[in-house]
Amino acid sequence: MSVSESLHKLVEARIPFRNRLEPMVASEQGVTVRCDVTQAEGVGCMLTHLDLVEENKSSLSMDELVHWAEWMCGRVTYLLEPLHLIEIDRRNGLALVRSKMPRRQNSSGKLSENIAYFELVADRRHHASLRRFQFRRTTRDRGSVPFGLTHDQLEVLVDDLVEGALAKNP
Amino acid sequence: MVQKIERDVNRFKQIIRGKIRQDLKRYVSHGEMIGKQGKDLVSIPLPQLDIPHFRYGDKGRGGVSSGEGDPGQSLGPGEEEGSGQAGNSAGGHLLEVEVPLAELAEILGEELALPRIQPKAADNIVTTKEKYTGVSRTGPESLRHFKRTFKRALRRQISTGNYTPDEPMVVPIREDQRYRSWKSVENPDTRAVVIYMMDVSGSMGDEQKEIVRIESFWINAWLRSQYQGISTRYIVHDADAREVDENTFFRTRESGGTMISSAYKLCRDMIAADYPPSEWNIYALHFSDGDNWADDDAACLTLLGQELLPSLNLFGYAQVHSPYGSGRFLDAIRSRLGESENIVLSEVPDRDSILDSIKELLGKGL
User: Fold this and answer.
1) What pLDDT score does A101 carry?
2) Half-sphere exposure at residue B51, Cβ-oriented, CA atoms within 13 angstroms
3) What is the dihedral angle through the alpha carbons of B24, B283, A141, B302, rounded to the nearest 10 degrees?
4) How confident is the prediction for chain A on average, in pLDDT?
5) Are B320 and B197 in contact (CB under 8 A)?
6) Among candidate residues A92, A49, A86, the one with its CA nearest the CA of residue A69
7) Nearest by CB to B257, which of A88, A115, A117?
8) Measuring CA to CA, which residue among B316, B293, B294, B292 is closest to residue B304?
9) Cβ separation of A89 and B324 shorter than 8 Å?
10) DSSP characters over B148-162
């Protein structure tokens, strides 16, 4: 069974729930996926973050990390906004990927001064962490907010992250 | 006595100043004048101002006359029906006036009510300059004043009847020699340097850099008006910092992560090497979107609080909003060092906020 299928089963087993934090961890073949789910129902779920850890592999070179990050930008095209690589931190071996066009929306989905975007931080140890951030102009604060995915999207996303992390040159 | 043309020129200058003042915010936020900057003058387009021009009268070209006319006939030159077509290019003139940078700075200072800067080193740093102030009878041959010497010799030869106009020969003797003499003048020295630092990491886009370019132009103009011969240094950084020239400063884009501490370290080293704080007025201005890698904040604040601030007249940090909003670094500085006297923090959400930000950065008059 793949790690995405394991995670899907974990979520499915607790459906439906809302307004509480359900930590979920799925591991298969040395790959661990962790996420906190705040709400789940028949179609999809809300996550606060999605982390992938691959323990057994050797570290990537910086070029390989850049290649991985760029591969994910090309592959993960089904989120609210397309992704692009914006920063490479060679000193700490990190790649920072964010939404190409941050979304300006409020809680009801109308355009507003709030800015929301995905941020994926990947590092040379085959770790990747996806979060969604929102910047509120009125209060000038920026924080992580839950993001919604359908169950299918979550499965495909986990598969893509795993595929990218496992292959040296995906 | 002031001539009429001078009065007209002065009036024209006042009109220009009024127009610039009126549209200062637009000029500042659009940055259109910066691209036309000469050494000391800036060209400013003033679209609403007509160029003064001669207008021919109607004399000798018809007009109202005596004689018989028909009832209802209009007087004066009639309107002819034109056969031309509408043009398809922009009409009107765009007058470009050249304004001295110092005058622009003055307008900015008046508009923003900026306080005059009190240089900190003016009292204790004195430079001595030699200035030629007169002529003496003794001195080194290298300073011999040839013109005066020959004048004295000519005068002596004429008065003693030894000068023949038909055979003009002037031969100076020892008493004719004149030499330049000098005097040492002591001047209080106010040396100043501005060190600009800019985050050029991947999250700082072109618009953010343009905002920084415009803001630093105006800050520079103001500081130049306050100090003679101010030095300017530029540092760009992503995860690493390096010194660059002005042109590179505004055009560089790197893809590295953001480590603000790298810029602060370079700034500290620069000051230690070239600018003793007891002799220099040192200004450090840093522009970033505030998206510092989280574990770097502590190092930055330690550097800033313990090593940079004691050396500086003013540390200004302006946080420019990126497409991803505003980072956390501003809050980090505010919470740890916001009370320091020589630190000024500013936030620049967009171009329209540039003027306010300049006022915040320069408003302390340090």
Assistant:
1) 87
2) 9
3) 180
4) 88
5) no
6) A86
7) A88
8) B316
9) no
10) HHHHHHHHHHHHTT-
For residue A168, what pLDDT band results from cuts at 50, 70 and 90? low
Q: Which of A92, A101, A115 sits opposite B325 (nearest CB)?
A: A115
Containing structural domain, residue A105: 3-166
Structure tokens, B288: 């970033």
Residues of B with CB under 8 A from a CB of A: 201-203, 238-239, 255-259, 293, 323-328, 347, 349
Distance between CA atoms of residues A69 and A88, nearest Å: 10
What pLDDT, in 10s, does the model give residues A130-157? 999 998 878 878 889 999 999 999 999 9
Please enumerate in sequence order all residues whose Cβ is within 8 A of that of B209, keeping only pairs 6 or more positions apart, or say none: B198, B200, B250, B251, B253
- Please state the domain count of chain A: 1
Which class does domain B192-362 fall in? alpha beta
Determine the residue type at B132.
Y
| Distance in angstroms (rounded) separating the CA atoms of residues B150 and B11 | 50
- CB-closest option in B257, B323, B324 to A89: B257
Please report where in the chains the tokens 């306050």 appear, as a residue: B226
A86 to B347: CB separation less than 8 angstroms, yes or no: no
pLDDT band, residue A23 (cuts 50/70/90): very high
B244, amino acid identity: V
Q: A54 to chain B, minimum CA–CA distance in Å? A: 23
Can you tell me which residue has the tokens 């343009």?
A: B210
Q: What residue ranges of chain B are covered by domains with CATH 3.40.50.410?
A: 192-362
